[in-house]
Specification:
This protein has about 400 residues and is α+β, with helices and mostly antiparallel strands. It has two domains: about 110 residues; about 160 residues, Sandwich (Jelly Rolls), CATH 2.60.120. About 20% of the residues lie in helices and about 35% in strands. Strands 8, 10, 11, 13, 16 and 19 form a six-stranded antiparallel beta sheet that branches. A six-stranded antiparallel beta sheet has the order 9-12-18-14-15-17, with no helix packed on it. It is elongated.
Length: about 400
Amino acid sequence: MTITIADFKQRLAGKIHGTSVNKIQDFYGVVHEAAGNVLGTIDPKETIRISQITNALYDQVYEYVAPADLKDDAVLDIRPQASRTVSDNFTNVYQESFDINKANQDFTVQYNSGIKTLRISKALTAGIVAHTMNSITDNGTWAVGGNATNLEVDTFNKVSGSGSIKFDISAGGTEAYIENISLTAVDWSTLVNTGAVFKWVFIPNTTAITSINHRWGSSSADYFHRTVTTTQNNTAFVTGWNLLRFDWSGSTAVGTSVNTAIDYLRVTFNYNGTAVPSCRVDNIIGALGTIYDIAYYSNYLFKTSAGVWIEKPTDDSDIINLDVTGLGLLLYEVAEIVGQEIAGRDSSFDISYITNKKKDVWDAYMATNKSERMKKRAVYYSLPGKTRR
């Protein structure tokens, strides 16, 4: 059944004894408010959506993009697109538990400064390390270029291993880089056009650093490169450590790289000319992802006639994402709200009747429609198979 806002207006007119909906100021705003009341109380099954998790899941990568319309943390399921087994069974945990344990097949929805992201832990095909960044000379030799200076190993501020590579950026230029032209060759041929290169970068000043470019190849004349301006989970750079992903697909090729023998890396910090001391790079890995879907409740109760899901209706041709029983909830929520607006001018409108009828509709719906969202679980002790990673 497809119900448009125009259809809804006709049904509403019958509930308010034929009073014209033209009396209602900001009708779309009222419907939006009522939709918030409905979504704040229930998880309508008609709002379930299934979408691919952006750019797949990767081993030991925990930050991912959340669907733009994910309602709170209302996730029903996380599953591979194909060949699911009984072991593909995720658990929704609290943020602290996730961060401490990162147990296999745990996830949480994280809010940070108003931005919602997914944190997911899944043991998958291990990545292929190109450089641990624990030493300047142990695996090839790192050198500075552009406006980078003062190259050294930092054994204190690091993400993994025994250290990170640290350098300063002097004022007056637009780029600073570190480069290794002689590392031990690794075979990344399985990643061509399907995998991604990951690395951690420490950004002391996000105002000065505008983007990060990464090169990988078999020589300084034969390589791929890509520039990013956001982190792996598509959020802005933060002051401190940032996990960056450089997708092979869509990268730019220079020369002809031998992808079975990647032995050249360059990491370039593009900046606005301001001096930036104490930049760092750690743990450069190539990885092949696995495609996973997420099933969730949307906080968009409407869609356009073109099928685009939206939070608030703006046209009478917009469609309400509710079936017969759910539509009744929205109808009586709107009727109760508009009753306050038009009751003083239309004595035939009976707010008490609408309120009582709304309760009956809610009771009937709640008795037969239960949410399928995954409830959060607190972890008190580790279970077999849920080891820390």
